[in-house]
Amino acid sequence: MQGATVTFEVEHLLFIRPDVAAVKVRQVHRNPDGTEEVGTPLFVMAKEDGQWRLTACQNAGVLSSD
């Protein structure tokens, strides 16, 4: 969507092995109208050939307490 932005902030990092990590992030998607949608993806990253690659992802929306 034109004019939308998304940011990711690492909240927790756990090395399962030296070459495998679980990364919990806070994702904020800002729509052009100023509204925000927040998610809490969990990424599983693996180091292959010297580079970190995304191997699995689970994403869930955060419900408002309002």
Describe the structure.
The structure is a single chain. With 66 residues, the protein is mainly β. It has a domain at 15-26 and 41-57. The chain has strands at 5-17, 20-30, 36-39, 42-48, 51-58. Strands 1, 2, 3, 4 and 5 form a five-stranded antiparallel β-sheet that branches. The mean pLDDT is 92. This is DUF4440 domain-containing protein.
Please specify the SSE layout and strand pairing.
Layout (H helix, E strand, L loop, with lengths): L4 E13 L2 E11 L5 E4 L2 E7 L2 E8 L8
Antiparallel strand pairs: 1-2, 2-3, 2-4, 4-5
Question: Which key terms come to mind for this protein?
Answer:
NTF2-like_dom_sf; mainly beta; 66 residues; elongated; 0% helix; 5 strands; DUF4440 domain-containing protein
Quickly describe the structure.
This is DUF4440 domain-containing protein. It is built from no helices and five strands. By secondary structure, the chain is an all-beta fold.
- Helix/strand order, N-terminal first: EEEEE
Instruction: Report the average pLDDT across residues.
Output: 92
What would you call the shape?
elongated
The CA-CA distance between the termini, in Å, is: 27 Å
Strand content bin: over 45%
Q: What's the total count of β strands?
A: 5
Main sheet summary: 5 strands, antiparallel
Enumerate the spans where pLDDT stays under 50 for 5 or more consecutive residues: none
Please give the radius of gyration in angstroms.
Answer: 14 Å
Structural class: mainly beta
Helix % is under 10%
Number of helical regions? 0
